[in-house]
């Protein structure tokens, strides 16, 4: 839909101010997952190297495996992918088939990390030095909770190496199934051909809906709407952090996240798989950290918790019922495959308290 493409081009230019925007182009896709898939299918040949964070959105593992890439997980710190470790990985891939780095720069899934502009510049410099592309998947751009909004790889892209993926799933709704790629025009021309092979085009209904929304709100109005949504998510995050500080201090470690997820390191456990299974049986849904690793069979002490659908009232109901439940929980955990928790929950209780109860028995 040409009108929507023009709107997205204008909004990207105003919001991110990429260099050489007149040489770039937008391709509308049926969501960000489709966008990442067609990028991999277009630019990765079997045997090419794809560099990703050591903990990454599981979908991207399947995307690169389907493209027959050699996936290289790179260690991260609190600032994101470590430049020194990326350089080491690049040096080891010495046959010259370094093709692409995948990154979520803001509110990363699962870690919640947001990269600083300095870190982005360091990684972009390596892309220029070793001649590879950057797939910047940025669904949580508008869910940055710090006063100073972080930059974008596209904003730094002086050499035309960045393929930026955006989506409306976190600003309008997941059901819209609409995303878009911004990249240099020759890249987008190739991506358009691949996209037509896979699914012709994104939903015309969704394209018209989003285009009309942007027309009615204007770019500034849309950005204000997104910021308003971010304030609500920040409130939920802050409530969850308060509850975690109150109930999980000494049991888990975490960083203050952007985005929608709290990434918890469970202390005292080498692997959380059994604990997650027990939590699930009690109505607590966590994703075990191993699911974000290239080799998901390896032990991992991390869990990912989403706070996007909770209410502040449900997080911290520290009641008599909660204390009673905590006293009555019993577990059997000695060289057994299954863990049995007695006495079903009869009163409302926060997920933090239930997690605390289960955890305290798992480490015995």
Automatic annotation (TrEMBL):
<keyword id="KW-0808">Transferase</keyword>
<protein>
    <recommendedName>
        <fullName>Aminotransferase class I/classII large domain-containing protein</fullName>
    </recommendedName>
</protein>
<dbReference type="InterPro" id="IPR050859">
    <property type="entry name" value="Class-I_PLP-dep_aminotransf"/>
</dbReference>
<feature type="domain" description="Aminotransferase class I/classII large">
    <location>
        <begin position="24"/>
        <end position="317"/>
    </location>
</feature>
<dbReference type="InterPro" id="IPR015421">
    <property type="entry name" value="PyrdxlP-dep_Trfase_major"/>
</dbReference>
<keyword id="KW-0663">Pyridoxal phosphate</keyword>
<dbReference type="InterPro" id="IPR015424">
    <property type="entry name" value="PyrdxlP-dep_Trfase"/>
</dbReference>
<dbReference type="GO" id="GO:1901605">
    <property type="term" value="P:alpha-amino acid metabolic process"/>
</dbReference>
<dbReference type="GO" id="GO:0016212">
    <property type="term" value="F:kynurenine-oxoglutarate transaminase activity"/>
</dbReference>
<dbReference type="Pfam" id="PF00155">
    <property type="entry name" value="Aminotran_1_2"/>
</dbReference>
<keyword id="KW-0032">Aminotransferase</keyword>
<dbReference type="InterPro" id="IPR004839">
    <property type="entry name" value="Aminotransferase_I/II_large"/>
</dbReference>
<dbReference type="GO" id="GO:0030170">
    <property type="term" value="F:pyridoxal phosphate binding"/>
</dbReference>
